[in-house]
Task: inverse folding
């Protein structure tokens, strides 16, 4: 069996920026254990697989995402990378892609040079039961607020606190949470970082799914519908964000890095 693999840098307009995703188009699903082995071999934060949808009226493709350790229910940067591959390399001629996923239908469209994704909005709620050692896990960070939805959202006072945070990944793993840290930005509306050692990814470079929580959170705090966000990882990435009722829009650029072949 031979499979084509693309590696795409998502949420960036510069090679070696943003978040790299491995994209593997399939004609039909392969064994789940094999997909997990491929993701482990790639050793990127996510490897994404998609197949043509069985119900073409409901969706164009079915999509699944794997970290090196587990399958996850939503991934933004690998969805963006998949759409980039479909629009640019798979002779797809529609203006919009509909992906069927564990998190429902995800709509992705071109917006001039950007690709925009329509994702679920997951407003986090105040959380009054902090995990033991959370403050120490985040390098003795001064925590302003604590919220929860799929992931634990930790509000810090300012951008420098997010930038300079020195996480203890062993302690973060012991909390059993994936953790977002966030604060107001200096030249963008908000900044963040994302730690997920429980999913085999210590720090994710740019995390679209985390913005399903961050966008409604900051939209409410800032009383703004349209915002710009930056993830302050070493590679860094920028997202154009919009809150639309029970949905969020996040848009960004992609850069092609590599096309290869997997032989099994």
Result:
């Amino acid at each position: 069996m031979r499979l084509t693999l693309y590696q795409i840098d998502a949420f960036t307009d510069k090679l070696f920026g943003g978040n790299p995703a491995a994209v593997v188009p399939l004609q039909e699903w392969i064994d789940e254990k094999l997909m997990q082995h491929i993701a482990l071999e790639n050793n990127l934060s996510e490897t994404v697989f998609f197949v043509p949808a069985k119900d073409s009226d409901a969706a164009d493709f079915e999509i699944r995402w794997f970290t090196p350790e587990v399958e996850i229910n939503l991934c933004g940067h690998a969805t963006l990378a998949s759409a980039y591959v479909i629009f640019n390399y798979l002779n797809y001629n529609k203006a919009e892609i509909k992906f069927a996923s564990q998190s429902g239908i995800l709509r992705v469209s071109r917006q001039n040079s950007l690709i925009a994704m329509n994702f679920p909005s997951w407003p986090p709620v105040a959380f009054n039961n902090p995990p033991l050692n959370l403050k120490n896990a985040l390098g003795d960070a001064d925590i302003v607020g604590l919220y929860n939805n799929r992931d634990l959202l930790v509000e810090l006072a300012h951008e420098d606190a997010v930038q300079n945070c020195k996480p203890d990944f062993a302690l973060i793993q012991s909390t059993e949470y994936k953790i977002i840290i966030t604060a107001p930005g200096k030249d963008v509306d908000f900044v963040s970082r994302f730690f997920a050692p429980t999913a085999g990814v210590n720090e994710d470079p740019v995390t679209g799914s985390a913005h399903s929580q961050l966008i409604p959170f900051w939209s409410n705090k800032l009383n703004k519908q349209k915002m710009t966000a930056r993830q302050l990882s070493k590679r860094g990435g920028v997202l154009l964000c919009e809150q639309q009722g029970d949905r969020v829009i996040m848009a960004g650029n992609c850069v092609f890095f590599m096309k290869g072949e997997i032989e099994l």
The chain has a mean pLDDT of 97. The longest strand covers residues 254-263. The first helix runs from residue 32 to 42.
